[in-house]
Automatic annotation (TrEMBL):
Name of protein: RNA polymerase sigma-70 factor
Residue stretches making up the RNA polymerase sigma factor 70 region 4 type domain: 129-178
UniProtKB keywords: Sigma factor, Transcription, Transcription regulation
SUPFAM superfamilies: Sigma2 domain of RNA polymerase sigma factors, Sigma3 and sigma4 domains of RNA polymerase sigma factors
Similarity field: Belongs to the sigma-70 factor family. ECF subfamily.
Gene3D superfamilies in alphabetical order: 1.10.1740.10, Winged helix-like DNA-binding domain superfamily/Winged helix DNA-binding domain (1.10.10.10)
Length: 201
């Protein structure tokens, strides 16, 4: 078969060659889809490390199961379906792991204000408990939290508004998120929050 006569950019042909064990065509598909799959998974998981790990896992699954590759009509859709399922596995693990729960809350705190719109939407679904927790914060921490999550101010803008250092703002936000996380966990709402968080993606 003359490879040069084939449109190497077509996924179907690359899959055929991958099934034959050709690493070159595997690398072509990996390079073609890696960044967009990573962007999707990062948006879902809020973790660069987790997103990268899932991307690699998806392609490793493809390579190790290459001999069984048949009937894939839309490779891009197939990739996203596999990635989606692995992201679900991640959130199921998060429901059982306090460390992962903490990582999610920290990621929400570190995300730019524009990226936090989804997080605020999720918080709205547990509005009553969230408000209860926020009302138990100290006045200054409550103000910092509201400026960040409800008014979309940056750390620097909050610091200037309240005459605080950016580091103090960061510490207040971290402490506030930890308190809210623990409050939701105590009221059995954190698992629901994680589930809603994934569904909204």
């Amino acid at each position: 078969m003359n490879d040069k006569a084939k449109p190497l950019y077509e996924d179907e042909y690359c899959l055929l060659k991958i099934r034959e064990g050709d690493e070159h065509f595997f690398n072509l598909l990996f390079g073609k889809y890696r960044n967009q799959l990573f962007a999707y998974l990062y948006r879902v998981t809020k973790s660069k490390e987790v997103a990268e790990e899932i991307v690699l896992d998806v392609f490793l699954k493809l390579w190790h199961g290459r001999e069984a590759i048949t009937g894939i009509q839309n490779f891009e859709a197939f990739l996203y379906k596999v990635a989606h399922n692995k992201a679900i596995d991640f959130f199921r693990a998060a429901k059982r792991s306090l460390a992962l729960q903490q990582a999610l809350w920290e990621a929400m705190a570190e995300a730019p204000a524009d990226d936090n719109a989804d997080s605020r939407l999720l918080l709205k679904n547990t509005d009553a408990l969230i408000k209860e927790a926020i009302n138990q914060l100290s006045p200054q921490r409550k103000k910092v939290f509201e400026l960040r999550h409800y008014e979309d101010l940056s750390y620097a803008e909050i610091a200037a508004t309240l005459n605080l250092s950016s580091n103090t703002v960061r510490n207040h936000l971290a402490a506030s998120l930890q308190f809210i996380r623990e409050y939701l966990e105590k009221n059995n709402a954190l698992v629901l929050l994680l589930a809603i968080y994934f569904e909204k993606k």
